[in-house]
Amino acid sequence: MLPAASPVTLLEPGGRKHIVSLTNQVTVVVFVSALCPISNEHVDRMIGLYGEFSPRGVGFVFVNSNVNETDAEVREHAVAAGFPFPVYRDVHNRLADRLKASVTPEAFLLDRSGSVRYQGAMDDARNPARVKISHLKEGIEALLSGRPVARPTAKATGCTIKRERKAS
Amino acid sequence: MALPAGMTVVTDAGYAKLVASQKGKVVLVNFWATYCVPCRVEMPALVKLQQKYGPKGFVLMTISADEPEDEAKALQFLSTVKVPAPHYVRKTDNEDTFIRAVDAKWSGALPLSLVYDKTGKKAKIMVGEADLPALDALIQKLLM
Predict the structure, then answer these.
(1) Which of A14, B42, B68, B114 sits at 20 to 30 Å (Cα–Cα) from B126?
(2) Which chain A residue's Cα is nearest to B64?
């Protein structure tokens, strides 16, 4: 398995390869799904965090690692959701395997060395009206301020990432 | 929002007690939700396992991870698919705590099937759609 600091090759919605560096800056990686209702309930929150922190130098990588979702579905979903950012395809689940992602939505917060400082849910509640703790936002703020991330993990129920069947 | 009649709450602390209450039986706990397509697809097959092995000391327990506003829909699905009662729904102030109480390695992805042997020990965890032939074979083995 490649170290977290290595660049990762993803596919842009048009099929072109895009090499993503995970060490240039504080980076947020979010695994999403076009078909998972839980992931889709977080669309506004994803757009909100991107809008708030991208101008402050935080890198965002939104990734669809589901082999059962077609490129067309992923593209059309991104348009319908109004994403102001691309959603990359994770070829052969490489990034999901490297980060050990298993559910959508699932967020990873990486520091400038590419080390994972937070893994888990974006918030502590599926329904935005019930959110008391915005785990991902708090983590981003902590890293930008040079503070440790208080809660390095927070799990939540969601949809499995549909992976390729690997030859045994 | 009131819990629909016919659903029983399982809390963080209550999960272990629920499983322990079935000692002496082979138990399949299935975590599911109405939004989870694979969960709904596999449920009839799990019901068939209950029908096949129930008389031999096997019990299927379904626990919904639905939000309160979807609990009535969950109950309706369980009724349609003829999932035997009791029908459980998880209730927690902290989903992370609940998930870890079920299994420390569980990411929260649904569906999740856990098989417990007659002593209450966890024998198998299946994340995602269950491997039904493997599940059937395991239940048979644990019932012996």
Answers:
(1) B68
(2) A157
